[in-house]
Amino acid sequence: MITILFFLSSLISLPPFSQAANDGETDTILAAAESHFQAIKDSSYREIWALLTVKSRKTITGELSKSLKGTYSREQIAADFAIGGMLARSYWDRFRHTFDPDTVLEESRWEMGRQRGRKAEIIITHKNAERPAILKMYRQEGGWKVGLVETFWTRK
User: Domain 24-152 maps to which CATH number in 1.10.150, 2.130.10, 3.10.450, 2.20.25?
Assistant: First the structure.
């Protein structure tokens, strides 16, 4: 009986199996998100682009092509963003005027949310916020990518 109680009490103190198995993946997901916001802060234009989901990249290139009234094709815009060219610099510098990455990097608490297969959520709560933001992350192209559009763009 004592042996059974000892065994049960030791199980209670262990983290759940799924959590222990995912700790490395959790660190990878959190690091990818942090790298993205740090890249915005550092104006590392190519890295910003590389850490975005396919949907975010397609949406940004489509919206930019439309706003530039066809001056550049989506493909030309995507190529410019991939190398951190003139359009990318202009876009991300304007983005930084409306979004301070330090609000996420320095002034917020991060917690891992749901994680299932190729999708994960990071709960980011700013020190002055009533509600957290739920950052959507997706495993694509061999790594975890930030779903900027999936998280912050309003549905049309």
Answer: 3.10.450
- Tens digit of each residue's pLDDT (9 = 90 or more) over 106-131: 999 999 999 999 999 999 999 999 99
**Angstrom distance (rounded) from CA 80 to CA 100:** 23
Q: Identity (one letter) of the amino acid at 62?
A: G
One-letter amino acid identity for 81? F
Which helix (DSSP H) or strand (DSSP E) does residue 14 occupy? none
Rounded CA separation 147/75 (Å) = 20
Q: At what angle do helices 17-42 and 86-98 cross, to 10 degrees?
A: 110
Contacts of 83 (CB under 8 A, 6+ apart): 46
What is the value of pTM for the model shown? 0.81
Cβ-based neighbours of 107, under 8 Å, separated by 6 or more: 126, 127, 128
Q: What is the pLDDT of residues 25-37, one digit of tens each?
A: 999 999 999 999 9
